[in-house]
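On clarity, I found the account of how folds are encoded harder to follow than it need be. For illustration, here is how one protein appears when written out as sequence plus structure tokens.
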Amino acid sequence: MSRQEAVEQYGRALRQGRKCHKDCVLRGRYPYPQVLDEILSEAMTAGQVELGVLEIPTEQITGTKTAGRRTAFSAGFMPLMDPDTEFAAKWIDLCEAHLGDEGIRDPIRCFEYLGRFYVQEGNKRVSVLKSYGAPTVPAYVIRLIPVWSQEPEIAAYYDFLRYYQITGLYRVYCSRPGSFAKLQAALGFEPDHVWTEEERRVFTSDFAVFQAAFRKQGGGELPVTAADALIVWLKFYRFEDLEDMSSQELAKSLSAIWADVKADARADPISVSTETQEEQPPSPGFLERLKKAVFPDHLTIAFVSDHLPGESGWAAAHDLGRQYLEAVMGDQVTVLRYDGVKGPMAEGAMEEAILRGAQVIFATTPPLINACRKVAARNPGIRVLNCSVSMPYTGVRTYYSRVYEGKFITGAIAGAMCPDGRIGYVASSPIFGVPAGINAFALGAQLTNPRARILLHWSCAEEDPMSALVREGVELISNRDVPTPDRTREPWGLCRVNPDGALRSLASPYWHWGKVYVKLVKSMLNGGWDALSAQEGQAVNYWWGMQSGAVGVLLSEDLPAGVRQLVEILRQGVASGSIHPFQGPVRDQAGALRGDGDHWFSPEEILHMDWLCSCVEGTIPGYEALLPMARSIVRLQGVYRDSIPPEKEGTIL
């Protein structure tokens, strides 16, 4: 390189630096490199480790160790000093050496703190190399270990420290704990597998391609790393696809799931919709014609289930909901059915439905969420919904019901009809909403019987929990709920144990999926669907209760008249919002006050309850205590799903 070429390179870098400085000022950001000594005190570190000379990512060099000449550089380490200064002359000398025979051979010296590097010696070397887009810089690194805390950034860093021993890579940095384990599993590795040099080389090469696409898409404006985005991408595609995709194909694939990447960056990635979007009254004249032009007057809808209605009560309940939708909506809908399709078959069924003109897909069980995500990413104009809850995928909306409202009422029935207060409860699995149902039942029981104690068993962890409760001498047991109001095979719901051991059903919450489907379809026809789309960057989860008709309570003819009157009062109060199951003081099993009577639990707090009320005797079973058949649903919807070690795929590196 000639001296003139080095001078010209300084001019280009100077223009970049001044532009970066101006943009930072306009956006209210600090326009110079951060200074480690100003943001870190000795009390914030637990020690330091000398790592020796490493190749570190230039994009993670964000500051300097001391204040020194920080104003000589922009926040991106491009120069700010005039070309006739001594600083510029030295920068140009280094630039000339960089591409000459001599090269820049000496490593810089820097400190690493929370995955970011702060230069102690070699600021101009960093600036020159960054100006040429060098992906890495040789550096002698001293790592500063932060004092442990549960702050997300500190917890994520300690997670990085563990996996750095496994990967040996600084470029793979995630912003939240648990992410490295997901990446390790997605690559087909055992949790403690130490990467070989060849595995590092292959991953680094492909990751660099992804990282460039991530930055081009605008990832630098998001509070997530390229590794965070890769983990989201790997939920839709395979890592080996990176080698086969052109840059245009990769950009298209990343664009298709970009809304999910943005949602993943949010502290609240899910918008829980607890109110239905009611049908709007017809508008007169021009407005009515405009509405008809904007919103459809007919929809083709596909129902996809992984079980046959004759084999599964859950599938039968949703099929009854489909029939209700067709009866109510008439010629406004055309319905396609795909029953008993599992795994890859479900994805194929959805694609076939789209080819047949489906504009809406209802997938009726949580395990179909993976097929839903992939189909939605490939077909952004199709409205895809999955019957599950708390799923942070913007391309797929989920729907479920607040069955805890019905549990509160059956708990009140149990308390009123059980003088000794010992009431059994058989819970299904520790998934979102189930602890809320247990707690609502317990509070309902205490409403009518302050001495009530709930004896909790789990069908996911023991073979015959009902018999175990009967042997304990319990006379009232809350069993599995009735799926639909027309399904009366006993025993269901709240049961009385007769002297001969037989069970007699008294009451049960039930789902009315037909009303859910009708309201969702009407919202698509009148614009309610699009109104919720305004929740920028959030996934939409519908979670409806008694007010919408999605949940009801079925009563046995054996129920006393006075208890029936109580039920009607509670039903009206819950539906109108004047009675809330969790509105009084609520303590957990450890005696901690979870609700003080003035604080109303938010929908998110209720949905994600992972604790039990003080009057409940029993615990939430851990993952290892579950029967094998229950583990898959807990992985998907479990209240502790983020702490379950991910299952590895086939090795792909």
Summary: The two ends are 39 Å apart (CA to CA). The longest strand covers residues 45-57. The CA atoms of residues 257 and 474 lie 51 Å apart. Residues 279-284 have pLDDT under 50 and may be disordered.
